[in-house]
Structure formats: C-alpha cells, structure tokens
TrEMBL record:
Location(s), subcellular: Cytoplasm
Organism this protein belongs to: Shewanella aestuarii
Family: Belongs to the adenylyl cyclase class-1 family.
Name of this chain's protein: Adenylate cyclase
Catalytic activity: ATP = 3',5'-cyclic AMP + diphosphate
Domain of life: Bacteria
InterPro entries xref list: Adenylate_cyclase_1 (IPR000274), Adenylate_cyclase_1_CS (IPR024686), Adenylate_cyclase_1_N (IPR024685)
Domain Adenylate cyclase class-I N-terminal: 18-208
Coiled-coil boundaries: none
Top EC category: lyase
PANTHER family: ADENYLATE CYCLASE
GO molecular function per UniProt: adenylate cyclase activity
Length: 810
C-alpha cells in the first residue's frame, strides 16, 4: 500500500469536513438501530447533562453533570416523550463535568447488528477528583441498568483528557476487567476511537492529521505506537473473543495488518480522512468496511485464501443483514454494497441462507465454525507474538494485567487432553440435541460423540462433535455445553440398549450437577487454582456389581463396606472419573482405573481441595447396576472425610486415614504437601476391617525460621502444576527468588542489585521473546508473587494487583 500523503487543510475547512462525517454517522445510526433504540440513543447526552431525581440514573445530588456547549433540541424533547421521562431544558450555572460525550465502535457502520452494544466515552473535565468520578461511575452503572430494561446495552467509559498523552499518570483510570482493556492496549484503542467515534455532545475531537485549535478536544497523536502494544492488544482481543470470536478475529487480523506495515503507519483513520477530503461520504467511507478491505488486501497478498473465506463470513455475520430476506434488504442502507461484495466472493445462495440462519445453527455447525475461528485466532496471535518478540515491552504495560489475560486464555486454548472445552453458541438460540450417540474407535482408543446418528452405517463422512479418551469425557462435555436435556435420546453405536440406558442415566445425573454460574475474579486468576466443583463418577465402565449376587438390603443391615464387601472382601468400585471445575473457570475430566483407582483419585484431588473454600461442592454419581445408593453414600462420606482432613493438616503434623480396599488395608497420609498412601501390615490380633478412622501422627520437627526453610512450606499452598511461578522477597540490596517450574521443581537464588519490578519485567520480556516457538507456552505466562512479612508471619501476595481490584469480575 502506498504511503498516504497528508494534505494540509485550513482549520475551518477541516472542522466542516469532520462535522459532515459526524452528521453522516448520526444519520446512519438512525438507519441502523431499531426506532425505540434510536430514541434511547438520543437521550444519552441529555441524561448526563441533567442530574435530577426524576431523571434515570440519579443517585446523588452532588453527582457532577453538564457537557461543554450542550444545546437542547426538539429531537431530545421527543425522545423524552417516547421514553416517558421528564424534559428539563435547564442550563446549569455550575461548571460542566464533561468535555464531550462520544459513541465509539460499530454504532454507525457496517458492523452494527441487532446484538451490538453501544460504547460511550465520557471525556471528563480535568478538575474532577476521585470522589467526583466515583459518583459519576455510580450514575453510569444505574444508567446501564436502565437502558438494559429496553434490551439496549450501553457501556460507559470515563476518559481523562490527558489519559493518552500522559499515560503513566492515568494507567489506573480504567483497570483491567470484563469491559476495560487496562494497559493491554492504549494507542491502538485511541486509534479505534478516532476511526469510529460519533460526537453526541461537547467538543469536536481533533482526530485528523495536524488538527489543532482551542475549540477542539485533543487526546493525543498516533505517531509512535510501541511495537509491543500489538502483543498486549492481541491478548485483549483474544480474551474478548472468548465470547465473540467472529468480532475478535477481525480486530486481531487488523492488528496483524498494522504490524506488517510497521514502522510505517497506515491507519484506517488516515483512509477515512482521505475519503472526507475527496468529498466521498458514500458507503465506501465506513470504518468497518475499510477494516475488512484492509484485511482482504493483506490476506490476498499472502495468498491465504482459506483465512480470507472465514474472515468474509465473520464480516457478513457481524453486519447482521440477512440478504436472503428481501424485506430486510430493502430497508438497510448497507444492503446494496454487501450484496455486491457477496457476488464478488462468488457465494452461492445456499451459503447465504446458512449464514442468515445462524440463530438456529445446531451444535455441529457451531463446532465447525468455532474450530475455524480458534485456529485462525491462534495463527494471528502467533504472527503478532513473533512480531512483538523483536521489541521491548512498553514501560506503560502492566505485566500483571497481561498475565491475567494470558492465564484466562491458557485455559481456553491449551491442548491438555483432559480439558473439556467450551462450545461457544455464537448466535445460536439453543443447542439442545434430540439425539446423541457415542461410538468407540478401537483403532484410536477414543470415544466419539455424534448428533442424529443411530447406526454404524451413518458414521461415514460424519464429523464428531467431540472426541474424548473416556465415555465420561464426551457425556460431560455434552452436558456442560447445553446439548443435553432430559428428553435427549442416547445411542451406543455397536453397543447394547443397556449401554444406551447407562449413557442416558449418566447424562441425567450430570444435568443438575454441572454448575456453569461460577464467576471468575482477578483474585482467582492471580492465585493458584482450587476446585470449585468436583463430581466423582463411579463404575461407568467395567461395573463389578453386575456379577455380585448378594442382597442390597443385607448390605444396609450389616453396615457393609462396599470397598471390601463380604467374606471375599470384594471391592465394588472399578473405574473412577473425576469431573472438575477449577477457580480459573476450567473444566477437566480424569480417569482412574485398577485396584487402587480410588486411592489415586484421592491423591490427585487433595491439593486442589486443600485450597478450596466453603462454596466448593463435592458430589458422587454412581452408575452401578446394583448397590448404587450404597456406593454413592460411602464415597460421599469418604470424600467429605478426606476434605476435612486435608483442610485440617498443619505444617507440623501428618494426619492418617485407615482404609480397607478389597483384602488389603491402606494408610492414607495427609500433610501440607498432599496425600500419599501405603499398605498397612496386617496382624491377626489387630487387623480389623472397619470404616475409615482418623489418627494423628507425631508432629513434624520444627523448621528453621529464616530465610529459606519456611518458604517452601508457605508457598506449597500456592503451587499449581503446569504454571511457572516466581516467589519474590525484596531484601536491602538483593532479591530472593524462589522459582517453581511447570513440573513443580523448586529452585532458590539470591540476586544482587535487583528489584522485584525489574525481575518481573525481565521474565515477562523473556516469555514474549520465546513463547512463540512453542504453542503449548503461547499463553502460559509466569505468575509472580510477593513474599512479605507482616507481624512476624510470612505471607504470599500476588504481585501488582491491588486488594481493591481483587474481587472484580474477569
């Protein structure tokens, strides 16, 4: 692409040009939004101009209000009448609170659809203090809730006028969260604002080249965007893509396009201005359309036709115009241009119908599209990571925020075979399946889940919805992702009807058990994970109760031990599957088999249970043909006992549970490091088979107080397998570093003339420079903890995240 030569335009001419574009965008909002939403849209500046107890959002008489140069008009009065709220055309004598109110994003563009939200930037007066901003935030939170009553999503962002120019002073104006990118992107966020904003009230934004003047709002120049910001911005867009991957894919690819031009700067903002100077205010002068065209040109130059095809589908779906519905086409200003594009792409009418019916896509269509999106997102991220690895991280980026984003993404994109991945429903209104079938591939030793298949003949050419190592994997995945209802019919391909009944039994038992409402907070992500929910599934395969000929009523009467039952000391437990949800929001499923399956399962669980809290849930699902209630009850009691035991251990003692298992007796030794089990020697005079009992071992010897001996004890509570963790303690001229690697191997060093901040920056940069070589490490950024001593007690605190931020949702 040729370098754009900026044409110098007089101040007045530039203002006229920019205002013409703003007016055009306001007209497009009216053409794009449903009428009731458009009237609400017009009310946004009015609700910030007036602070009155009869106006929506009111919470406090001291809440700052008023917008620079605000003027009342008939459209606002009409909107008040439509919304049935009071109209107060009063100009306050108090100084105005806001330099301007602006919509940004897709509101006036090709990218606006019925599900799009509206993002509002409130650029506030620099004289406002923290108390003022707190009052405004309270009001905007109430306004967001008020708009939501009308199915209109409006998000507000407070922006200091110097936030982008003097970023070090205002990094914490918008901390990282569900809607705020924190320090992950900065100048690239400003560029998006410049290319998409609509002035609703207040000062005109100086967004074009060389714009200046006291009557303009100047937020900053886009001359020197640091290369490393493309890494932070890509992390943020991928995080946003967990909910809306089709939208994130377009934005991540735009970052890739921008990075390919670096250090030259060919921003969409520049293209829009060139159109304005040429007096081109047609459909071509649209930020979202230009975004697509930039990506198209880039991918064509690389001959990446497959990526381009998915991009085209994402762009079409983002527009939300159903070209196969003639009535909608006639009423939309974008339809003619979009129709021409789809013809240029040689799309058949069948593809248009499929995309227009996205609200009714079944799980198979969703799974295919999700796989394409995730693959392309990772491709772009890898390219951006490789680009960023050549440059230093920007000083303004908070690496702890990047770590939170990476931790969230690691759980989603990692290839751990035990992970149960989420199926994004995208636009689909529901993914319930009337018929599901499980087929076992003997060749690959894998279980395959299919929809609407009941026989082997139908398998040919069909793509599985999900593939797992165990049958519990696939059933749990289907339940977790909402494919299953109590009416779903199950089939076991090449299996008996009894097997199909067992699938249905397991699915029905899991539907009320699997909890999807758990909210992940920053506190969870910057600490070690723990189990939020554990479901133990007993005897789904190889059920020993099938050949047991006893009477269940006698087991209850004799208080029988299902782990060592009757004269033959039979263990009625064969296979164990552990379905778990951890505090990072990740679902996993693990299988344990063999004589000591139960002991291995308990050993696997205990550290995650040690860190668990009172909200954590443990339950048992028994799939046994017989003794189901007895197995469920005894295992529930045992798990509860193990939970109470691991919670009760101290650093100085070990607790023991004695457990009968078949014809052997085992000792389960619990300490702060976990649980190990050992066979106990049986003597005829003392070897009694009974319920588990608790005994206390002798206390451990006292540990030295400083500096290293106590540290492993305290950090054991934070260690997570698979994560690289630094535990740091600042000494006078040195830094004590305890490193626990991904395999829980511990090392200890003391560094001269090093601060915590320096080491965190150094290790984060090392991650960026090297992780692009290993897909498993893409998002596995190190965790950093600060060791501090308070009142004589050594404590572990997450580095860089304040207590105020900890509880916020993420």
């Amino acid at each position: 692409m040729p370098i754009i030569q900026h044409e110098h335009v007089g101040h007045d001419s530039a203002i006229i040009c920019a205002e013409k574009l703003n007016t055009l965008r306001l007209q497009r909002v009216q053409l794009t939004l449903p009428e009731h939403q458009y009237q609400l849209f017009l009310l946004i500046p009015y609700l910030l101009q007036i602070n009155h107890n009869q106006i929506p959002g009111y919470s406090d008489p001291a809440t700052p209000s008023g917008i620079c140069g605000f003027s009342f008009n008939a459209a606002i009065k009409h909107a008040c009448q439509i919304a049935d709220i009071e109209y107060f055309p009063l100009i306050s004598e108090q100084p105005y609170a806001f330099e301007g109110v602006y919509a940004m994003g897709s509101s006036s563009s090709f990218g606006q659809n019925l599900n799009s939200d509206v993002d509002i930037w409130l650029v506030y007066h620099r004289s406002l203090n923290a108390a003022d901003l707190k009052l405004i935030t309270h009001k905007t939170t109430r306004l967001t809730a008020w708009f939501a009553q009308f199915d209109f999503e409006v998000n507000f962002y407070l922006i200091h006028p110097n936030q982008f120019q003097e970023c070090s002073l205002y990094d914490n104006c918008q901390p990282l969260g569900e809607e705020h990118s924190g320090s992950a992107q900065h100048w690239l966020l400003l560029e998006e604002f410049y290319r998409t904003h609509i002035r609703l009230a207040g000062k005109s934004v100086a967004w074009w080249p060389d714009a200046q003047g006291d009557d303009l709002l100047f937020l900053g120049a886009l001359d020197n965007i640091p290369a490393s910001e493309y890494f932070g911005a890509s992390l943020w867009q991928l995080y946003k893509g967990l909910n809306k991957p089709h939208k994130a894919l377009l934005k991540v690819l735009l970052l890739e396009v921008y990075a390919s031009d670096y250090p030259q700067k060919h921003m969409i903002t520049d293209t829009i201005w060139q159109y304005c100077l040429a007096d081109n205010f047609s459909e071509d002068n649209d930020a979202y359309l230009i975004l697509y065209q930039r990506i198209e040109a880039y991918l064509l130059s690389r001959r990446e036709v497959r990526r381009l095809e998915i991009v085209r589908r994402c762009f079409y779906l983002k527009c939300g115009i159903a070209l196969s519905a003639s009535q909608q086409v006639q009423n939309d200003w974008r339809s003619q241009k979009l129709t021409q594009l789809t013809m240029d792409w040689n799309w058949p009418s069948s593809l248009l119908s499929t995309l227009d019916n996205a609200g009714n896509w079944h799980s198979g269509q969703l799974q295919w599209f999700n796989q394409q999106l995730n693959e392309l997102l990772l491709t772009s991220y890898k390219n951006l990571l490789q680009f960023a690895s050549k440059y230093e991280l920007s000083d303004r980026m908070r690496v702890e925020e990047l770590g939170l984003l990476a931790r969230k993404l690691h759980g989603f994109f990692n290839d751990d075979p035990h992970t149960l991945p989420a199926l994004n429903p995208l636009w689909s209104q529901g993914v319930n399946e009337p018929v599901l079938a499980v087929w076992y591939s003997k060749k690959k030793s894998q279980y395959h889940l299919f929809r609407e298949i009941t026989s082997t003949k139908q398998l040919i050419g069909q793509q599985a919805l999900f593939i797992g190592k165990t049958v519990v994997d696939v059933v749990a995945w289907a339940v977790m992702n909402g494919l299953v209802t109590h009416k779903t019919r199950w089939f076991g391909i090449e299996q008996s009807k009894a097997y199909a009944g067992k699938l249905a039994q397991l699915a029905s038992a899991l539907i009320p058990q699997i909890n999807l409402s758990f909210e992940v907070t920053k506190r969870h992500l910057c600490q070690s994970w723990f189990y939020q929910q554990v479901i133990l599934v007993a005897n789904m395969d190889d059920d020993p109760t099938l050949v047991w000929n006893g009477q269940e009523i006698m087991v209850d009467y004799m208080n029988g031990d299902i782990l060592s039952l009757g004269r033959d000391k039979q263990n009625m437990l064969s296979s164990i599957d552990i379905i778990s949800l951890n505090s990072w929001g990740e679902w996993h499923c693990h299988r344990f088999e063999g004589e000591v399956a139960l002991l291995d399962a308990i050993s696997f669980l205990v550290l995650g249970l040690k860190r668990a809290n009172e909200q954590s849930r443990i339950s048992v699902v028994s799939c046994s043909a017989k003794l189901s209630k007895q197995i469920s009850d005894q295992l529930s009691q045992l798990l509860d006992l193990c939970y109470q035991t691991i919670q009760g251990v101290t650093d100085s003692q070990t607790l023991l549970i004695e457990l009968n298992l078949a014809d052997k007796k085992y000792g389960l030794h619990f300490n702060s490091l976990g649980m190990v089990y050992k066979p106990l020697i049986a003597h005829k005079t003392v070897f009694h088979y009974n319920r588990p009992r608790l005994v206390t071992h002798l206390p451990r010897p006292e540990l030295n107080n400083e500096p290293f001996a106590t540290v492993p004890t305290i950090i054991q509570r934070y260690i997570s397998h698979g994560a690289k963790q630094f535990f740091l303690r600042q000494l006078k001229q040195k830094l004590e570093v305890i490193l626990v690697d991904e395999h829980n191997k511990l090392s200890h060093t003391v560094l001269d003339k090093m601060t915590i901040t320096q080491l965190v920056s150094q290790q984060s940069m090392h991650f960026v420079k090297n992780s692009h070589q290993d897909q498993q490490a893409f998002f596995n950024m190190p965790q950093f903890f600060h060791l501090v001593r308070k009142d004589g007690v050594l404590l572990v605190e997450p580095f860089g995240v304040t207590e105020d931020e900890m509880g916020s949702a993420f």
